[in-house]
Amino acid sequence: MQLVTAALLSALLVRSSTAADDTTFISAGPNAGSATSDLFPPTGTSVDPSQFPPESEVGFPGPTPTGAEPAAVHTAIAYPDNRGPSNQFPLVAPQPHGQSATADKFDITKYWGNLSPWYSLSSADYGLPDTSPLAPPGCSVTQVHLLYRHGARYPTTGAAPAQFASKIANATKDGLQVRGDLAFLADWTYKLGGELLTPFGRSQEFLLGIQHRQLYGHLLNNFTEAGTIPVFRTESQDRMVKTAHNFAAGFFGVPEYLDQVSIEILVETPGVNNSGAPYDVCTNSNVESRGYIGSTMASKFANDAFNATLARLNSQVSGVEFTPTDALAMLQLCSYETNALGYSAFCGLFSQEDFLNYEYYFDLSFYYNNGPGSPVSAAQGKAYLQEFVARFTGEYPEAWSALNQTFDNSSTFFPLNQSIYADATHEVVVLDALTAFNLTALFDGPPLSPTENQRQNSFSSSKLVPFATHFAVQVLECPAYQPTKQMRFVVNDAVIPVADSYPGCSPDPHGLCSFDTVVSVLKDRIDEIDFDYDCFANYTADSGVDYNGRAPRS
């Protein structure tokens, strides 16, 4: 207790002294930049069921009659959008550096690229102002297919945030001094783990499960009639397993989900086919000049994107010099610490312009790594495209992609008759899939400029690949349409039109198109994507090109 009190007193003294005089340098403490962690539960502890028996042994549950399954997709008067403070509770995100108290609020969390918490998009942004994911008048949703990303997590082990911490720790040994906005670095330590879901990330998936139960609970009646339970899928990485469990817990309840859904865990490791991790079997996705075009472009963009802020921060530190790489690392620390710890002092270092450039850094990376500017993205997304079409048609998919035919040719592991499907994956794979599905409304406009955000393209990484992003396909029965069986696509609550990219689909105010037409278009797209060539051929791909996710042939 004395050690904790001393540490807190030291921190308070540092903060009080710098508040009084921001111009005076203070020396960083000996532990600045060092990595710290906690361990819970304590080693050797566990629940003793003999002392704390479960509900099934205690008994006396009281009345337990069930009600009707929710079907808000049909019954709600308005769609329950995930917007405003609710989508990031209980995180605290400050206003950007230099923002006046009277200025309009700027939500920095919406400019963190793939590190943003997901929020509801508007169908109007994609040309459909008169619709939402609620079933159109007279229509009923008969099947839903969901592809979703894990929630907020710790950084990749050894990535930029940890490298920045090491730089601070090394500088501390040589007499690091800080002042002003950087005074907090005097006693800052690196508190982030590696790649695991954060508490906020768990809550995102739990709430995502609740949302989909509220919208589509009525589809469970099909399982009751068939006398079976759903199979939901995920990958073997720890955060992916926990993602699927938290989603299932929200959808089915705790502990009910343990007996009401089969969670299939597919191995994610290099050399093993897995639709949720296609980069493990697509060689060119790991070749810098083909699979990482966006990363190269983004790094070049960042070299001059934060000059003004770097000049200000370098004037407030002695013993180290911050670079564009450090600016990105501190921005990532803003995102990761907020998502993991609830608040980050790094956020207040950066201006509104910095956050806009930060997002564009991610836009470039994802558009050219996993979007239409990549020569391998459609090939990587082909496996999910094939699996979705297989579920639409009731026919097992062929193995000309990253899918695992051992599992995908089995009614046990790849059932073809479910009314609800839910597959958990990574954000890069969600974007690969959106590219493979040829949903061009998400990328409407010229290829992204390598030097500045010209705002001429609808693509936004914060909108399409945030934490807990999700892509849903609704199959509907609409008596007023001919044919009556219809389909549409929904990304983070925005209905996405397909009339411009799906031959035979007419413009529709609700984004609907005939089921048979969509399936035919997607089958053609499957045939068009040459997995072997795109993933293994020796070709040259240029930056700044919209390849529609396909490798060039000349």
How does this model look, in words?
The chain is of the alpha+beta class and 554 residues long. Helices cover 36% and strands 9% of the residues. The protein contains 19 helices and eleven strands. Strands 2, 7, 8, 9, 10 and 11 form a six-stranded mixed sheet that branches. The chain has a three-stranded antiparallel sheet with strand order 1-3-6, with no helix packed on it. The chain has a two-stranded parallel ribbon with strand order 4-5. Strand 9 and strand 10 form a beta hairpin. Helix 4 packs across helix 12, helix 5 crosses helix 7 and helix 10 runs antiparallel to helix 13. The longest helix has 19 residues. The chain is globular. The chain starts with a helix and ends in an 18-residue tail after the last helix.
Furnish the topology, listing elements before pairings:
Elements: H1 2-20, E1 26-27, H2 55-58, H3 72-75, E2 140-149, H4 160-173, E3 177-178, H5 199-216, H6 220-226, E4 231-235, H7 238-252, H8 257-260, E5 262-266, H9 288-291, H10 293-302, H11 307-314, E6 317-318, H12 324-341, H13 352-369, H14 377-393, H15 405-408, E7 420-425, H16 427-436, H17 461-464, E8 470-477, E9 485-491, E10 494-496, E11 513-514, H18 515-528, H19 531-536
Parallel strand pairs: 2-7, 4-5
Antiparallel strand pairs: 1-3, 2-8, 3-6, 8-9, 9-10, 9-11
